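Incident log, support desk, overnight shift.

02:14 A customer reports that sequence design results differ from what the structure should imply. Their input is reproduced verbatim below. On-call engineer (initials T.W.) acknowledged and began investigating.
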């Protein structure tokens, strides 16, 4: 199997997916090959369509259809006063499925700032977060970043960027342990973290 260059490269690429190693990739590929018309061809066609028509929204960070627009940005049926800021789309999915933040808009950063340098801050959607806060007259920004050094660095950086807007900036409280990411938390832990969120204090002069 690995003597065929096309399959060798496919194994290498699929092995990069979360939860899939080399052996899992091989089994998956064999399943596709054995079901060329039922699985492989539709999958290839669908992946091509997703690649062409689905992208990340530059305003809120969520996934959007290039033809229909961003559903996350087009929530107009109710005016909300809170924005929940998460690192990744998978974090938003976890929070949404747990029903702990039904009164919030969502904003996906796309990552975190390094605790040692801030060269990547331009890659995160922090500027668009500030614009959304102003435009939608937001009263509270809930920073639901992970309990890592990078996640907390990002939380405080966001607080600094928002400090002149006269709004509440809070972070998740008890329920999320050091080193944990939001998407890995159980519903009960997420509920506790949101319920016990704390205000991020401005320590600058």
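02:41 Re-run completed on a clean worker. Output:
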């Amino acid at each position: 199997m690995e003597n065929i260059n096309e399959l060798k490269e496919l194994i290498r690429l699929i092995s990069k997916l979360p939860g899939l190693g080399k052996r899992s990739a091989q089994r998956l590929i064999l399943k596709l090959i054995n079901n060329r018309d039922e699985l492989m061809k539709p999958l290839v066609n669908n992946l091509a369509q997703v690649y062409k028509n689905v992208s990340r929204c530059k305003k809120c960070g969520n996934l959007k259809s290039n033809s229909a627009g961003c559903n996350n940005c087009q929530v107009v049926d109710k005016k909300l006063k809170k924005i929940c800021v998460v690192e990744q789309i998978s974090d938003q999915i976890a929070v949404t499925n747990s029903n702990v933040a039904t009164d919030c808009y969502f904003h996906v950063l796309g990552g975190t700032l390094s605790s040692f340098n801030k060269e990547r801050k331009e890659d995160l959607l922090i500027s668009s977060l500030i614009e959304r806060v102003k435009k939608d007259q937001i009263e509270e920004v809930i920073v639901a970043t992970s309990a890592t050094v990078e996640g907390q660095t990002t939380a405080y950086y966001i607080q600094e960027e928002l400090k002149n807007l006269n709004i509440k900036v809070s972070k998740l409280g008890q329920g999320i342990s050091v080193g944990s990411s939001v998407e890995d938390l159980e519903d009960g832990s997420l509920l506790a973290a949101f319920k016990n969120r704390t205000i991020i204090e401005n320590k600058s002069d």
